Amino acid sequence: MNDTISVKTPWHLWVVGVVTFLFNAVGALDYTMSQLRNRSYLSAAEGTYNITVDEMIAYIDAFPAWANATWALGVWGAFFGSLLLLFRSRYAVWSFAVSIVGLVLTTIYQFNGNMPEALEGPGQVAFAAVIWAITIGLFLYARRMTAKGVLR
């Protein structure tokens, strides 16, 4: 006899999963293009932040290996966490937890490192706060969906 109970997937799981998958895909694109030093992609920063592509590349090149690794953990943990939500996998919780660890360490580096002056300011702090809120919210959401039996 099968004792498992089938739990209906709530509509909001699909909304949260798709919206955050798209949001986190942008983060994955940013990470990838930054790591590839894609000049065309990085040139968008020239108009937005008043910084040259060469200055952006120099900033990225100055990242220590651990900061690059934690940036990867944050980005890819969130990306795969959203994908795992769509697959209704309980491992989404772990993926978002990895993302939080990456986010903590990356934030420490960003705000204590050698960030160019053009990238500093209230906009950077606000953007970081939004990423923090979304990442923690996704972790709590995945935990809640796991507790309710939606994620298996």
Summary of the model, kept short:
With 152 residues, the protein is mainly α.
Provide structural commentary:
The protein is elongated, with a radius of gyration of 18 Å. Helix 5 (65-86) packs antiparallel against helix 6 (91-112) and helix 6 runs antiparallel to helix 7 (122-147). With 152 residues, it is mainly alpha-helical. Helices cover 75% and strands 0% of the residues. It is built from seven helices and no strands.
The proportion of residues forming helix, as a percent range, comes to over 70%
Structural class: mainly alpha
**What is the strand tally?**
0
The N- and C-terminal alpha carbons lie at a distance of 19 Å
Topology as H/E string? HHHHHHH
Q: Please state the CA-atom Rg, rounded to the nearest Å.
A: 18 Å
How large a portion of the residues is in β-strands, by DSSP E?
A: under 5%
Q: Uncertain spans, ≥5 residues at pLDDT below 50?
A: none
**Can you count the helices?**
7
Write down the overall geometry: elongated
Chain-wise SSE layout:
Blueprint (H helix, E strand, L loop, with lengths): L10 H25 L3 H4 L1 H6 L3 H9 L3 H22 L4 H22 L9 H26 L5
Helix pairs in contact: 1-5, 5-6, 6-7
